[in-house]
Amino acid sequence: MKVLQVNSVCGVGSTGRIITDMHDYLLNLGVDCHIAYGRGEAINCDESIRIGSEIDNYFHVFMTRIFDNHGLGSSSATRKFINQIKEIDPDIIHLHNIHGYYINMKLLFEYLRLSGKKIFWTLHDCWSFTGHCSHFDFINCEKWKVLCQSCPQSKQYPASYIADNSKNNYLFKKDIFTNIPNLTLITPSNWLADLVKQSYLGGYPVEVIPNGIDLNVFRNRESDFRIKYNLLDKFIILGVASPWSSRKGFADFLELAKLLPSNYHIVMVGINSTQVKCLPKNITGIFRTDNTIELAEIYSTSNIFFNPTYEDNYPTVNLEAIACNLPVITYNTGGSPEIIDENCGYVVTKKDFNDVISKINLIRLTGKHDLSYRKDEINKDTFIKRVIKLYKL
Length: 393
Description:
Layout (H helix, E strand, L loop, with lengths): L1 E6 L5 H16 L3 E6 L11 E2 L3 H14 L7 H14 L3 E4 L9 H11 L2 E5 L43 H12 L5 E5 L2 H9 L7 E3 L16 H4 L6 E6 L9 H10 L4 E6 L13 E4 L5 H10 L2 E4 L8 H8 L4 E4 L13 E4 L4 H14 L8 H4 L1 H12 L2
Parallel strand pairs: 1-2, 1-4, 2-3, 4-5, 5-6, 6-7, 8-9, 8-11, 9-10, 11-12, 12-13
């Protein structure tokens, strides 16, 4: 049995770590498995296949910015990759994020249609059934249900600054994505599965398999974080995102900071060099880290995890916080509330800061609960075993 996974990144970020976790597990089972990725450096996978080059990526970005034809560049790189797939001759091809300026979806899906392979596609966002965007909750757009056109988010990822090709993109993606035999879709959340069933992908079987995380990494850890940042006497409210944006709730943290008493302090991980300049004194900004142990230490020393995301599939940051015994407060958006119950946190209405403050004070009064009862549910091994069951290895 041979398995090939395809993703935009390898070992970096949530999707990158998902595929390397799967890869390691399959290797331990004796499965011949491979990873192909499109951008950056591969981490924790020495034998991965890079699709194309930095130059290919940049040119793909350039063409997208002008023509809004994301996913239609990288032709030479994709042809070379398809030849590599033929050499590997996998029994299973498992797609993850195929957007990200690295692969030509037309060439890839023409190959998949004729390959006879068993295909799985994990959807980590909504890009596969829209004419442009990866999320649409923030602006409450429902054009994707009928026909995308005159896209209100054309300048958002994958940004186009000149053309709006959303109508043609929608029709093209509908044509090539709905013509693949032996395809099973996987979503991490019930929320995304419900959207898929309302889209042109609704004819495919959809399996809901929530993501898992490495509990050997994400657990309670001792650190000198509070000493290092002079926060020994503070009640810490933590936020983690990469990157921070209005959709991730950056402005909401700034608003929350105005309402907190002096003995409360906010820590935001994933801040960029521009954002850090506008943070008030009661917010400590930390640049993005791919050091997961360092991240687990920050979770462990904090008191509350606040995730004010306006659109998200099934955020692994919620799982990481829970694994480090950190209660979560999140908005009632996307799949973010699906992991939350009355013992591990609270779900609140978007921008209801009075309720957020109320829940923060309630958690401070009751203290942290023992969240070990959730560990099996959020363990990456539980997630991987469910995916492998679909593979029928």
